[in-house]
Structure formats: structure tokens, C-alpha cells
Write a structure and sequence with these properties.
Length: 97
Amino acid sequence: MQPVQHRNLKDENGRIYCCLRNKVVKLDEKQKGDFCRGCSMFAGDADGQGVDCVWEDLRAVADPHIVRDPAKEWMSNQMKHIWPPTDHLSTCMVYPS
């Protein structure tokens, strides 16, 4: 799995999805100072429009992955993939009654 650049653009309320905190946060100076600047995923300020982050994404997304809706991005990141896929039905046994 390769690292993917995530360009998290601020929404109309100045919020972004933060992968480190796994939540939608207001991108203000406190967020930048307390979290972004010390985060190993931090990769820049998205030309002043938000924040760039680089991390290995399990989803099939473009590179760069442009995020305009932080709530939708948060929801998408809550779906966890189980790998390798398992055929649970093949492990079931049926007993006649």
C-alpha cells in the first residue's frame, strides 16, 4: 500500500477531517500548533486553503485525494476493511435435526 496525499480543504465553517484525531476539527492556530505541526502525516498547508496530509489509505482513492466535505470524509474513514477477505459461510456446519 502506497502513501496517498490527502488535500483537506476547509469547509464553509473552517473545518477539516483530521486523520490523527479521527474527527472533524476547526482548522485554527490551536489545531495547527497542537496537532498538525507535530503530526508525522502533515505535509503542508494546502496553499492556505486547508491542510495536506500523507498517509496509507485502505480505500481506493485518487492521489492526490481532494477532500471538500470533512463530515463525508470522516464517515468514509469509519468503514474498516477486513483483510484478507474471509468466506465465513464455508466454515459453517449444518446438522440435520
